Amino acid sequence: MNKRILIVDDSFYMRTMLKNMLTDAGYEVVGEAANGAQALEMATSTEPDLITLDVILPDNTGLDVLKSLRQIQPSAKVVMCSAVGQEVIVNEAIENGALAYIVKPFSEEKVLEIVGAALQNDASEQTA
Amino acid sequence: MKTRDQEYRELFMAEALEYYDSMSRHLSELERNPNAGPALNELFRLMHNLKANARAMGFTDLGEVAHHLETLFGLIRDKEREFSGPLIKVVFAGVDALGNMIRAVGASQPLPDATALLDNLDRVVRGEAPILDEAEAGETEEESNRKMELSDLVYIQVKKLDNLLNLVGELVIDRDRIMTLAQELDNPALLATAQHLFRISDDLQYSVMDARLVGVGVLLNKFPRVVRDVASAEDKEVELTLSGQDVQIDRNILQIITDALLHLVRNAVSHGLETTDNRLKAGKSAVGKLTLSAMTERDDVLLQVRDDGRGIDTEAVRRKAVERGLTTANAAAGLDEEAVWAFLFEPGFSMAQKVTDISGRGVGLDVVKLALDSLGGQLRVDSEMGVGTTFTLVLPTSIAVKGALLVEVDERPYAIPLMHTDTVLALQPGQISVVGGVMVTHLHEQSVPLVPLRQLLYDEGEEPLPSANKSDIEGTQHVLVVNYNNRRLGLVVDRFMRQQNIVIKPLSKPLDTIDLFGGVTLLGSGQVCLVLDVPTLTRLFLARRP
Fold first, then answer.
1. Sheet holding B421-427, edge to edge
2. Which residues pair with B517 in a beta bridge?
3. By CA distance, what is A24's nearest residue in B?
4. Distance from the first to the final alpha carbon of chain A
């Protein structure tokens, strides 16, 4: 079965690019959320295998969303997405259970490599 | 892929302009209230996004300016810098520069130099005083007040476009009516105005149709995934080639044929293409080839699904058609390949699992056919045993307006969509023979049955149509050869009127249950003209042939 991915990013451009990369590689993109509230709602309704989460979101910081996500969907693996300059938040995100992070601007190879590795990561290793 | 790059660029531009507008809004809020938290957060977020997107697009300088401003707004938010004094000027200069850069991207021009600005941004980030050229700073501010940019791209609901197209359809009908009136009244001023109205509404009609066009690629690009899924489920190796993604077609037409195309592609992978073992045994490459291509032919769009698989077993289909009572053994023996393949599109024919196994084809092809019929499109099939099968979907580029041929029977006009017409013939009695009560003529070495359209229109009931007699055929016969489902049929009419673009309106109750008529159109004279449905005419003839 294809792995199901939820994309959380407030930029339509970024979501489209990520979605194309992931879909082309055979993943199923089950939803695209543009803010934290949508992300939590969609994570509950779609139960994705993996969530790509933008660090900076309009209504919440990505970090708050990550903490809530970890509570409502503990099985979902989370990969943070961020442009350079937000290393502090990213580190905190890793401490809060995010598996990896993708630095924007990302290449297709890098995205697929990180997403693939995160999906293979065993659930037990996930809890930091 | 060119189309995808273009799509990214358009998305980038649309979003960048939106960000720029929001930035300006939040900046004026910040001017009123230098500690406005939400505005600062938003500015920080917008800069962050613009930076990331610009870098992904390769606009380094644009990304750099946004990056500096992001850092600066982060510092202001964290109270390490204050939004006051010379810093404000640098921020405004920075946002103005972003606007200019975004506009330059939109106009495909080189980005303006930002060295001095970046230098100043560095200074204020470090807490130093910027080097400001007062005159220059003042001018920039003035300039920013003049330039207001809105996105060049508008997203619009398809529903609104549908409405627009319907209104244009109404307009075109009235236009034709006015044109005819002007000719009847023979008033030169009215005629000139009517002609002008004609041209304008023509342009309007094509503009609205054009606004509804999308690249076929938006659908085709979804198929690599489908093919991979089906291929891996069937344990086959398939190489998919796409072409013609840029061919333009009405968005609703694409929507309607989505399932049909999906069906054909799945069918091709699971039934058309052989397993790797069987391919190797047949001396073929291990990897099956599947091609999805789009091309424009006259006013139509052709979508082809081509595989290099086993092909259709014509004899198996022929046997099955006789078994199912669709034809007699004698008649079946005389049918050429194309006529036999046409049985694959018969409702229910495909449901016979056995045929599917033998021919490797057929599951739900009637459904594909129905989707195409609803559009007034055509489905063609071409196949060679052991070499492969090609399905061709012939689609109109646009809905609502169709080219049609007007014919007359008993002084009443009827319209027949050009999509289904092959050719018109003027036949002398000597060119027509009668075989088993059916008139037949020869066209390109194929025999084509002829039937008076009058009989199909007036003779109700289920019983066979009256047999034709050679002696009854007198004078020139005007024949319109229509084509449906690989079958040709000659309709004998009283005369041909003209070819014209028509706007088809659905029939209202209670007439909407009469399949024979695909709808109604109004001619310029105000006369009501029924639009004939060729698929139904063909079926009616086959069911009731003498």
1. B421-427, B477-484, B487-493, B446-452, B438-443, B433-435
2. B532
3. B225
4. 27
CB A30 within 8 A of CB A49: no
Of residues A11, A56, A85, nearest to B53 (C-beta): A11
Domain A4-120 class?
alpha beta
Please report the domains of chain B, with CATH numbers, ordered by start residue: 2-146 (1.20.120.160), 158-211 (1.10.287), 215-396 (3.30.565.10), 401-544 (2.30.30.40)
Q: How far apart are CA B6 and CA B8, in angstroms?
A: 5
Measured between CA atoms, how close is B79 to chain A, in angstroms? 18
For B513, residues 6+ apart whose C-beta sits below 8 A from its C-beta are: none
* Separation CA B463–CA B483 (nearest Å): 24
Indicate the length of chain B as a whole number: 546
Determine the average pLDDT of the residues in B165-187.
81
Average pLDDT, chain B: 82
Q: Answer yes or no: are the C-beta atoms of B17 and B147 closer than 8 Å.
A: no
How much is the ipTM here?
Answer: 0.80
Cβ separation B45–A58 shorter than 8 A? yes
Average pLDDT over residues B112-116: 84
Nearest to B239 by CA among B202, B209, B269, B218: B269
Residue B229 and residue A2: Cβ atoms within 8 Å?
yes
